[in-house]
Amino acid sequence: MSFISLRSMLVGLFLTAMSVQGLAQDTVIRVEEDWEMLVEQPDQQLDAPQITTTLMPLGEDSNLFFQLDMNHASVPDYSPGGIQVKAYNGDECIDEQRSLAAQRLYVQSERITWTQVLIQTDQWLHFGIVSGQSQSWGAFGGPESFVHLQATGNSLENYHPDHSARNSGVTYAGNRVGYLRLVKVRYFMSSGDIVQTEVNLEAQR
To answer: In this predicted model, what pLDDT tens digit does every residue of 160-179 receive, in sequence order?
Structure first.
């Protein structure tokens, strides 16, 4: 084998190894969950129904998690209507954002949709709501809804949509909700690839 051929072969092997290494380092850096809910018979006098979704970015064994309260807020005390986004470390609420306070759901047979966004940066996890649509509230969510948790050195590889559906539900007046479901999940990879999957997971009612 000539020196030129040997050199070409070694370069090829090096590039292949670099490519495999790059694939091995490709990680999830952002997750988006598309949710939908049918509110059949809301009751403004009872602040009903009340809904809470939970996202566990590092898996069910971690103390770090995020929650979305809908048609009520629970921190620091109960208050009716609107939404509240919260970040928890164990039992301690580290960060929260409140919006649409005292604006209760009131439209019968109302379909509500929203996207829950989880982003990982070097030292932080960020969670918020975007693209919310409701007849009662109009458009909701956006940058002002995001909360933050410090989580140095963690990864999103243990996130799973089953955990979200299993730990979410209608916490009060479930009979007033036709369905609450996680419809789609999108995974944003460090390589720039986006993987979308339909899950259609029902939460508790």
So the answer is: 999 999 999 999 999 999 99
